[in-house]
Amino acid sequence: MNSFDWLSHMGIPAVDTFDIVEIKFKGGRKDYYRNVDFLALHTGDPVVVASQSGHHIGYVSLQGELVRLQMQKRKIRNDDDIQRIYRIATENDLEKWENARNREAPTLYRTRQIIQEMGLKMKLSDVEYQADNSKATFYYSADDRVDFRELIKMLAGEFRIRVEMKQISLRQEAGRLGGIGVCGRELCCSTWLVDFKNVSTSAARYQNLSLNPSKLSGQCGRLKCCLNYELDTYLDAIKDIPKVEKPLITEAGPAKLQKTDIFRKLMWFSLNNENDWQSITCERVVEIQEINAKGGKVFNLQVNSADEIEDLAAQSTLELVELDKKFAKKKKPKGSRKNNRNRKPGPRPQNQNAPAKEQAQGKRNDSKENKPSRRAENAENPNPNRRKNKSRRKPKNPQTQTTPASQNPSESKPKNSEAGRKGKRKFPPRKNRDSNGNSPKND
Question: pTM to 2 decimals?
């Protein structure tokens, strides 16, 4: 994540432009170099800069008036000790630098083996080769002082290069390695954080955080730097929170402080070490402390005496009554008002059609009981040729169905042809039947 130049759009005159540029190197390391030749640089351009023994390549991270502010913040003087920028890196320079960077991983693994063989109590975290392939810087961390004079001789003979050992802290080591924090963003120490301040456990106490090392420590194994970001805001808000050094005395029992919400000004207490916590405001806590200081007790955390509970109960009942009255008045439909106006007072007339309905329902039930079932009819009439025609078909008009041969000669067919007989099903002519429904026998 690069630094954002929020003064780039302000159009500062070219005469007053600051000639020092901030250059970023591997592992988030930043340094300042003077643009003597006034090169047209942009953020992210690779440039060749001077070093104590040769030259190195870095990327432009910031330029302009913001560089002046950063130098004042880091207390860097604008004097002759600042090195210069040679030129913008060419393809040949980048190829040589890439070859030098390819040597870093094998050198790191081999150096760790040498350290383990020599039995030195140090942790090698990173190796950085210079762009001209003339010097290598070894970054390590250790709890105590380490004598690495023999190590330097072995490394110089092993890799045929000038060796520089540089001890860094655990926070700087995490910044060089980089990573993603619990917030989901890149680590602050590897992007913009330069000065590492001490973080104490009191910062977590002021913010009411649980003193859990696994949650409060970062990837470096130390307390997170972000604990100091909001500490000033918490210190300003905690001034209005009363100090509760002993439990509050009530008639129900002692109330111990369990939790405090600093910004909402609420405090949770538990009576007789129960799990049911009760929240009260900070003003109420101060009032109870004053009563306890005089030797008195309160009825509970909400009220001072039992009479106030009765007043609260009466007030709540009045509120419920008002709500009942409010929702009891419902609007009647529009049609009912007209009917109510025309209706005369008196007993409600009975329905005169009720006896007629009962008689009709009784007749239906009698007809169902007296009606014989279909199976009984079939038993009485065993003739299988009997056919019930519920819906008689009406004879169709032959004039509407027949089409003249002149219109469609291919589809016209004779009436008595076999194809016409197969397409239609003919029934025998109906004859007179006797009283039982049987057809007379043919003589």
Answer: 0.57
